[in-house]
Amino acid sequence: MSPLRRLRLSDSLAESRILVGVPSTPVVKVLLQLAELVVRDGGVKDSLEFYDELSNQAPAFIARLGEGGGCCLSVHQVCSPAVRKLAVAMALSPEGVKLRRDNLAHVIVLVAVPESPLMSNLAMPSRLIQLLGDDSRRERLLQCAGPAEVHSRLREFEGQSEAQARGA
After folding, report:
1. What gap in Å lies between CA 49 and CA 76, rounded to an integer?
2. Tens-digit pLDDT profile for residues 42-81
3. What DSSP character marks residue 16?
4. Which domains can be identified in the chain, with CATH numbers?
5. What is the pLDDT of residue 165?
6. In a 3-state reduction of DSSP, which class is residue 77?
7. pLDDT tens profile 29-45
8. Reduced to 3 DSSP states, what percent helix, strand and coil does the chain have, rounded to the nearest 5?
9. Strands 104-114 and 73-80
């Protein structure tokens, strides 16, 4: 089994780091809210260093899917020695969060990873793209009433993905 299949989003994304019903606002504000959730949950060793890395990296934009008028996913990552272990935070905005050039994102994800020279830094963004690459899955997330339902839906997507991989 590949490391990508073993990596489970639901293990790194606690319900306490899921925001549902985020109003339309600039993406920077949403990323700061997500970073605060990671800090609050103890995901970092040094919060000042983490926020400094966040602002200096701006955070690294990894991927955007679904810009053709559908439900858009925007994944951002911060690699920092201040991060204790991999942590993911997610915001869902039915109205859409404002990105650059008047684009909107409806599912915004912040991935916080410990600084590492290995390519493992790209494992979670790759997993996110694999799980949420389908527009209908992103739409289903937006319909969730709260963090527990989002987490449950993500576990469902992971199960479907793992079943497909076994059948392949």
Report:
1. 18
2. 999 999 999 988 887 655 566 666 656 678 899 998 888 9
3. G
4. 16-167 (3.40.930.10)
5. 79
6. strand
7. 999 999 999 999 999 99
8. 50, 25, 25
9. parallel
Pair 19, 92: CB distance under 8 Å:
yes
Alpha-helical runs (H) found in the chain: 3-6, 9-12, 27-40, 47-57, 123-132, 135-142, 147-167
Q: Which amino acid, residue 138?
A: R
* Full-model pTM: 0.89
* Interacting residues of 91 by C-beta distance below 8 A, sequence separation 6+: 18, 19, 22, 30, 33, 34, 97, 107, 108, 109
Structure tokens at 154: 């993500």
DSSP-derived 3-state class of residue 93: strand
